[in-house]
Design brief:
The complex is a heterodimer of chains A (about 300) and B (about 425). Chain A folds into two domains: about 220 residues, Rossmann fold (3-Layer(aba) Sandwich), CATH 3.40.50; about 60 residues, Alpha-Beta Plaits (2-Layer Sandwich), CATH 3.30.70. Chain A is about 35% helix and about 30% strand. Chain A is built from ten helices and 14 strands. In chain A, the strands form three sheets. A six-stranded mixed beta sheet of chain A has the order 6-7-8-3-9-10, with helices on both faces. A four-stranded mixed beta sheet of chain B has the order 2-1-3-4, sandwiched between helices. The chains are: A alpha/beta (about 300), B alpha/beta (about 425). Chain A: Keywords: ATP-binding, Nucleotide-binding, Transport. Chain A: This is ATP-binding cassette domain-containing protein. Chain A: GO terms for molecular function: ATP binding.
């Protein structure tokens, strides 16, 4: 069975005294997609996620799931991984994962089977009886993500799930998350590793100072970003600065990176270049996600 | 403790196509969550090494103390008393002293060691053959002298003083043509008490000290434990995961009940070990009255500790990190220490007042029951006062706990915690 509920964040605002940490934030996490939540330190990602999970009360705004306001009963079926990592340090891995699952109303037997299955898949099968504090940080992180994935959650809210993981562990985690998106589960995860987000996400929300700066599929965002052209000519390219409708971002010998106001400017540039000699290359340059991010958060 | 009453719009839907209640369905509210939390608190605490070692050491101390008292009570001291040249008065005095020791149930045995002269007497003392030498003073008007190698034993001195006095009285009376019995006829004084309690003031003090100590160890130890377990979950953000799964009051209820059960079990163990140990000592006579007092204590402690546990849970929630605990638990620690010192040293009207003041009455009322001072209805009324205190403490704590638990960033005050819990 495939779920098709989306999570909608509407006008979510949170102030702490004078500070507005989250300012009228609205976005949608569609079913079956990985949505990346990107922003610098203090952009309001964690605050937003805590409000989604009901851990923090919003000053204004609401969160809806499947078209209705989110309830505690809904949240009980969500998987949540909070910002700071930590479990009971002195309790065995298996025991505490089963305990957390049972709090969510999963029977002890089902919880146990599911925990053992997940431990096995994340390469922790032999560590079930070990105390959490004995595990490496990366392995503690895996245990933590298992806690969020118990009981086939209907929505996943993961705060920096990939931080501190090696590339192999990231791939394992991505495979695991893909199983959940295949079930139609909306997944919202925050990260500051833009390359990773670019590779994984079908959807992206960029936050800065508590406001949404951009929201959409990476391709859409890239299309919407300022398009640039790269020009390589036979001689020195310094003359491009004089062409109307052309803004030279960077000129280095015979290579220039340019912003062009319209298509006419492209033609004017090409004509001028051919007048002066040979043209080796004139190509549009698609901005990387990192460039878009820098642009929208500048 | 009421379960949440939201209606779950997704209840009954089974999105993963599995058994309802199993993974994938929007699980109905977990009404038994507090039982899970309670069980975890008990198991984690009961398996905690520090706790177990503390318990074993305490039990060993109680047993050792009782064994020492029993040994102390049962051992008989023997005293050899030197008399010179078959001194009849001295010999009779020692025999009278021995008779008094038997009559008073004093664990002392007096024997006569007859030697030839003063030098032989001194040698007997120096060689350790005898404890003391009873002989007339140089001037007969000064009476008698008891000489020892060092200061003679106080029990021996007391018995010989009485024995000698009796002996001299007898002979003086005979010289005056009468007898001691005639002279002292009708002067006997015996004591009696209306309440029929067999507990003397020394035992009472010891018992109140023991109860105050039980209270102190139980309340402080288990209180710190609950505060620590709350801040552990808060610091690690585990509470954020749990808060999305169960109502916070379930967490609080589970913690209060779990730690109260552990604290109570600990006190019951101490009390039983103490009573059993006491039954082997000479003070076994007070066991019946002490037992009923202990039953009251356990009852009072069970009720009162729940209130204190709730307040300790708030102290844990007000902290952000384990290091903050020392600060946030200070008011509780001070209160418990104050109660500890006040209750075992209180007497008279002050003790009566304390026996109605919540939390202090956990110790004070059972002590008054033991002393036979309390009327039958007094512990009942006092217990009701304590129940009221616990109810208020739990209600107030529930709000402050909810308000403070999910707040991060430094220590939180009661006011902020209250305001945050809407």
């Amino acid at each position: 069975m495939i779920s098709n509920d989306s999570l909608e964040v509407r006008g979510l605002t949170r102030t702490f005294g004078e500070l507005t940490a989250v300012d009228d934030v609205s976005f949608t996490v569609p079913p079956g997609l990985l949505t990346g939540f990107v922003g610098g330190n203090g952009a309001g990602k964690t605050t937003t996620m805590r409000m989604i999970m009901g851990v923090l009360g919003p000053t204004a705004g609401e969160v809806r799931f499947g078209g209705a306001p989110l309830t505690l009963a809904d949240r009980r079926t969500f998987g949540y991984m909070p910002e700071e990592r930590g479990l009971y340090p002195k309790q065995p891995v298996l025991d505490q994962l089963v305990y957390l699952a049972r709090l969510r109303g999963i029977s002890a037997q089902v919880a146990r089977a599911e925990v053992l299955d997940h431990l096995d898949r994340l390469g922790l099968a032999g560590r079930a009886k070990e105390h959490v504090e004995k595990l490496s940080l990366g392995n503690q992180q895996r245990v933590q993500i298992i806690a969020a994935l118990m009981g086939s959650p209907r929505m996943l809210v993961l705060d920096e799930p990939f931080s501190g993981l090696d590339p192999t562990a990231v791939d394992g985690m991505v495979d695991l998350l893909a199983e959940h998106t295949a079930r139609g589960v909306p997944v919202l995860f925050s990260s500051h590793q833009l390359d990773l987000v670019e590779r994984l996400c079908e959807r992206l929300v960029i936050l800065k100072s508590g406001r949404v700066m951009a929201d959409g599929a990476p391709a859409e965002l890239q299309a919407g970003g300022t398009e640039r052209h790269r020009l390589v000519v036979g001689g020195d390219a310094g003359w491009v600065r004089g062409v109307p409708g052309v803004h030279a971002v960077d000129v280095d010998g015979n290579v220039a990176l340019l912003e062009l106001v319209d298509d006419a400017a492209v033609q004017r540039l090409l004509a001028s270049a051919l007048e002066r000699g040979t043209v080796q290359e004139l190509t549009p340059v698609r901005p990387t996600l990192a460039q878009i991010y820098r642009e929208v958060t500048a | 403790m009421t379960a949440p009453t939201h209606t779950d719009p997704h209840a009954g839907l089974d999105r993963a196509g599995r058994q309802p209640g199993g993974p994938g369905s929007a699980a109905p509210p977990n009404r038994a969550a507090w039982i899970l939390v309670m069980n975890r608190e008990i198991v984690v605490r009961a398996l905690n090494k520090t706790f177990l070692i503390g318990l074993v050491v305490s039990v060993a101390i109680i047993a050792a103390l009782a064994a020492f008292m029993a040994w102390q009570g049962s051992k008989t001291e023997s005293f050899a008393v030197v008399v010179t040249g078959g001194d009849t008065t001295a010999t009779a005095a020692v025999e009278a002293g021995e008779a008094i020791a038997v009559a008073q149930d004093t664990n002392a045995e007096l024997t006569v060691l007859d030697v030839a002269d003063a030098d032989a007497a001194r040698t007997a003392l120096t060689d350790g053959d005898a404890e003391a030498w009873l002989h007339p003073a140089d001037d007969p008007a000064d009476g008698w002298v008891l000489t020892g190698q060092s200061d003679p034993d106080s029990t021996l001195t007391r018995l010989l003083t009485a024995g000698l006095q009796q002996e001299v009285l007898e002979s003086n009376a005979a010289a005056a043509g009468t007898s001691v019995a005639e002279l002292t006829a009708g002067s006997a004084l015996t004591t009696d008490r209306v309440d029929g309690s067999a507990v003397d003031s020394q035992t009472l003090f010891f018992a109140s000290f023991a109860l105050a100590l039980l209270f102190f160890i139980g309340a402080l130890g288990s209180g710190q434990m609950i505060a620590g377990s709350v801040v552990e979950e808060k610091q690690s953000r585990l509470v954020e995961i749990m808060a999305t799964a169960v109502p916070l009051r379930h967490l609080l209820a589970g913690k209060i009940l779990g730690s109260s059960i552990v604290a109570l079990a600990q006190n019951v163990v101490f009390a039983v070990v103490g009573l059993v140990a006491l039954s082997f000592t000479p003070t076994a006579a007070i066991l019946p009255s002490l037992s009923s007092s202990l039953v009251w204590f356990v009852l009072f402690f069970a009720v009162g500790f729940m209130g204190m546990a709730a307040l300790y849970a708030v102290a844990g929630a007000l902290a952000s990190r384990t290091e903050d605990l020392q600060h946030t638990t200070t008011p509780m620690t001070m209160a418990i220490m104050g109660i500890y010192f006040l209750t075992f040293s209180a007497s008279g009207t002050f003790a009566t007042v304390l026996s109605y003041v919540p939390v202090a009455n956990i110790v004070s009322m059972p002590v008054r029951v033991l002393s036979g001072d309390a009327l039958w209805w007094e512990p009942v009324v006092s217990l009701l006062v304590l129940v009221a205190f616990t109810l208020v403490a739990v209600l107030v704590s529930e709000r402050a706990y909810r308000g403070a638990l999910l707040q991060t960033g430094g220590r939180i005050g009661w006011k902020r915690a209250f305001a945050a819990a809407s």
